[in-house]
Amino acid sequence: MSNTLPLPRPVEPFLIFTALLRANGFAVAQEQTTSLLSAIELLGPRSIEDIRRAAFATLAPPAERHAEFDALFRAHFLGEFVPGIEPADSDEEPVNVRDDRRGHEEALLSDEVNEAGQAATSAEALSVRRLRHDDEQEALRQFARKAPTALPRMRGYRLRSSRRGGAFDIRRSLRQALRNDGEVMRLPRLERRWRQRRVLLLIDVSGSMKTRTDAHLRFAHALTRAADRIEVFTFGTRLTRITRALRLRHREQALDLASTLVSDWDGGTRIGDALQAFLAVPRFAGFARGALTIILSDGLERGDPAAMRDAVARLSRRAWRIVWLTPLAAAPGFKPETEALKAILPFIDELGDGGSTEALTRQVMALGRQAKVRKIA
Amino acid sequence: MPVRSKVVGIDRPEALEQALRSAFYLADPQLATAAYLALALGKPLLLEGAPGVGKTEAAKAIAAVLGRRLIRLQCYEGIDASAALYEWNYPRQMLAIRQAGDDPVDIYVEQFLIERPMLAALRAPDEAVLLIDEVDRSDHEFEAFLLEFLSDFQISIPERGTIRAHERPVVILTSNRTRELHEALRRRCVYHWIEYPDAEREARIIMMRASSVAEATARAVVAAVGRLRREPLSKPPGVAEAVDWAEAATLLNRQGARWPEAFRRAIGVALKDEEDLAFLAPHLDQIIAEAAA
After folding, report:
1. Considering Cα of B87, then B92, then B94, then B99, what sign does the dihedral take?
2. Lower CB density within 10 Å: C or N end of chain B?
């Protein structure tokens, strides 16, 4: 006869359900499926509600995907089809946060995406563009080499053995003492090792930043490769987390994947709302704590400047340092003119030039060397 | 995996819910189901949720229901295995070596062992509930160590041998979700996401925990707190803050303050962040007025 045992009929619906979950990007392990079946057996089950609760408890969907999980459950077990749970895209909607962990996002590529928006195609413009492109590649190459050691560091919390250092390592002293009849010859020490600070990168992808967006994403990819712990978000009218996409080693693949996640390219800018949305998610706000925060934006805020100021103020209390790099600062004699930029000056540590990749890499690498800078008055 | 019912006298989630209520914890049916399944399947229970939502309280209540003591391991950034498992009492051992002089002495015995929460739980698995609190504050290395512990429930002390629990202890983990926990850890556990209680339940919680509070007050506080939680605050008020606020306002009212005033003056009990207070100052009166209506 056949080699595989046929499954008992009652079990099938549950196995099909877990397969459905996996097809929708939920990670379900073998042992979880087994737990689910045991749980259902334990509970009776007396009603579909018991099954639903057992499913939530044993299959552990992440909190932000609960609605999706519930919809799949209802569709599979109850035959209900709930119309899409994604809110409609609209400027008046409050900013929502898109996390890139979902498996089945709609492809949201706007028509003008990935074009640097360079209208001039004359030969001169082409050659200027090539030159700038070469400069950029060179800057990124240098950055890839030097950044891992140049990024700012802090002392970690774990105590590790070392030759010099603050604390005594009593455990090792004892072991050595045992070998030496109770005498302690040297004093082994413990210290807190240096590790790289967390890096938080926020990229403005609205219309006014169009010419710089591509270069910024390439920079973001290079920074993701160089940093130990990093989170990258884009914002415009929405906040989108693209960290995982940028972790792909191959740059083009990473950028392609990132561009499918972002849906608010070249739209308006609501920086204040985006930052508030960022801070409202405990996981993201927690990441910002003690982090080097780099914001690539021109600060041309469509929303309320007071909201932007408040959000940056709150962020400044968590972040180690906030570095705001704007392409407008590339012009000599730049001074912040807009109400929004002037309002945030007391809360940021540096307002710098984000006009070229060379400037970006130069400034970011310099951060590791600076002593604590006074905030701009 | 063996399915054991270690839940004495509790054979259904509803029974657990009842038992928790008599331990002064009002659980929602989903939590009761998850906790019941964790106990019956012998798996750890992972409670995740915003700070202040009642995770640690749930663990305490579950321990009370089971009649066991709660052994608490508070996680923090940089916590390592020795802080969780055991440490030898080095100074004592050194002294013992010196005092013994030329005579042999065994320094790896019980009197020199400082037992930490996880070892304590292993040694008395039927008498204790191990609470690993705020596991998201620890780092990846500790999580890996935790995973090992939760799969085998045994530890090896190199000088003493392996210590194995004779039955699987009850383990509850909590997380504030300030970072993602490793998938493997979540798979190992029975999981429950705790939301803020709905208005009805929160009012009952307040009245259960603070007997001096009248129902109308409780409802008003619940309405106000619900509204406050929708604002972008750095420290949104939790369930404990709601209870305290109701109690404080009742106290002030007894002393002569009128109702909206009593709520207003006790606001520091509910909102504990200066920034949040400043942010809400213009709207607070309106929020309280609407809630008290």
Report:
1. negative
2. C
State both tokens at B80: 């390592």
Name the A residues in 68-127 with CB < 8 Å from any B CB. Answer: none
CA-nearest residue to B142 within chain A is: A158
- In order of A208, A328, A345, the CA distances from A332 in angstroms are 20, 9, 19
Question: What's the pTM value of the predicted model, to 2 decimals?
Answer: 0.75
Cβ of A157 and B77 within 8 Å?
yes
Q: What are the beta bridge partners of residue A323?
A: A294, A350
The whole-number average pLDDT for the span B51-61 is 93
Lookup result for tokens 């990819």: A221
Query: CB of A178 within 8 Å of any CB in chain B?
Result: yes
**pLDDT surpasses 80 at A15:** yes
- Torsion, Cα of B269, B275, B281, B284 (10° steps): -50
What is the distance between the alpha carbons of residues B141 and B78, in angstroms, rounded to a whole number? 9
Least confident of A111-125, A288-302, B158-172: A111-125
Query: For residue A218, how far is the Cα from the chain centroid?
Result: 15
Q: Which residues of A touch B48 (CB under 8 A)?
A: 63
Could you give the ipTM of this predicted complex? 0.79
Q: Is the pLDDT of residue A220 over 60?
A: yes
Chain A to chain B Cβ contacts (< 8 Å): 108
Nearest CA to A302 out of A206, A201, A202 is that of A206
Other CB atoms within 10 Å distance of the CB of residue A81: 9
Q: Are A198 and A292 in contact (CB under 8 A)?
A: yes
Kindly state whether A367 is in contact with chain B, defined as any CB-CB distance less than 8 angstroms. no
| Angstroms from A157 CA to nearest CA on chain B | 5
In 3D space, the residue among A293, A294, A351 whose CA is nearest the CA of residue A327 turns out to be A351
What token pair was written down for B241?
Answer: 């803050």
| Whether the Cβ atoms of residue B172 and residue B45 lie closer than 8 Å to each other | yes
Instruction: Supply the DSSP string of B193-220, one letter for each residue.
Output: EEPPPPHHHHHHHHHHH-TT--HHHHHH
Interface test with B, best of A59, A101, A170, A308 (most B CBs within 10 A): A170
Are β-strands B161-164 and B154-157 bridged in parallel, bridged antiparallel, or unpaired?
Answer: antiparallel
Facing B232 at nearest CB: one of A60, A63, A276 = A276
Which of A35, A37, A197 best probes binding to B when mutated, by most B CB atoms within 10 angstroms? A35
pLDDT digits (tens, 9 = 90+) for A232-266: 999 888 888 999 899 988 889 899 999 888 888 88
Lowest mean pLDDT among A40-44, A224-228, A370-374: A370-374
The answer, yes or no, to whether residue A199 has pLDDT greater than 60, is yes
Number of residues assigned to chain B: 293
Model confidence at B8: pLDDT above 60:
yes
Using the predicted structure, report yes or no on whether residue B285 has a pLDDT greater than 80.
yes
pLDDT value of residue A104: 32
Residues 6+ apart with CB under 8 A from B155: B85, B118, B119, B122, B149, B162, B163
Report which of residues A122 and B6 the model is more confident about.
B6
Chain B residue numbers touching A306 (CB-CB < 8 A): none
With CA atoms as reference, the chain A residue closest to B141 would be A158
> Do A54 and B37 make contact, defined as CB atoms within 8 angstroms?
yes
User: Contact A177/B37, CB-based, under 8 Å?
Assistant: no
Q: Which residues of A touch B179 (CB under 8 A)?
A: 283, 286-287
Q: Name the A residues in 29-68 with CB < 8 Å from any B CB.
A: 29, 31-32, 34-35, 38-39, 41-43, 50, 53-54, 56-58, 60, 63, 66
Q: Which residues of A touch B44 (CB under 8 A)?
A: none
**Looking at residues B242-266, what average pLDDT do you find?**
90
